[in-house]
Amino acid sequence: MTPNDEVINIYQALINGLHGVDYNWEYPRDQAEWDGLFALLKATKKQFDKKGLIATMAYYPDSRQEKLLAVGGRAAAARPLVDST
Fold first, then answer.
1. In this structure, are residues 48 and 20 in contact, taking their beta carbons and an 8 Å threshold?
2. CA-wise closest residue to 48 among 2, 13, 3, 83
3. pTM metric for this prediction
4. Which of 16, 22, 26, 65 fits 56 for a cystine, CB–CB 3.0-4.6 Å?
């Protein structure tokens, strides 16, 4: 079990009648933080979709964030997660 799996299990236990979870990590500082956030969102959606729950992420654009997302095509990789709601 990964740390993300543990977090997701806690969320599922706490939801109790709610529709899902919204991540609001306003300004990841570097690529490693973006990668971690992306992995957590992807793992959450995978588990939540099975139960009809939703996972969303707030995003606050600024020029630094766009540069980080552009590295390695991460913005394109995130698009299916963003557009799937």
1. yes
2. 13
3. 0.64
4. 22
Q: Tell me if 55 sits within 8 A of 41, measured CB to CB.
A: yes
Task: Give Rg (Cα) of the chain.
Answer: 13
Residue-wise pLDDT for 33-56, tens only, equals: 888 888 888 888 888 888 888 888
Provide the pairing of β-strand 54-57 with 20-23: parallel
Q: How many domains does the chain have?
A: 1
Task: Domain of residue 12: give its range.
Answer: 3-83
Task: Give all strands (DSSP E) within the chain, no chain letters.
Answer: 20-23, 54-57
**What does the pLDDT average to over 58-79?**
68
Alpha-carbon distance of 6 to 55, in angstroms, equals: 16
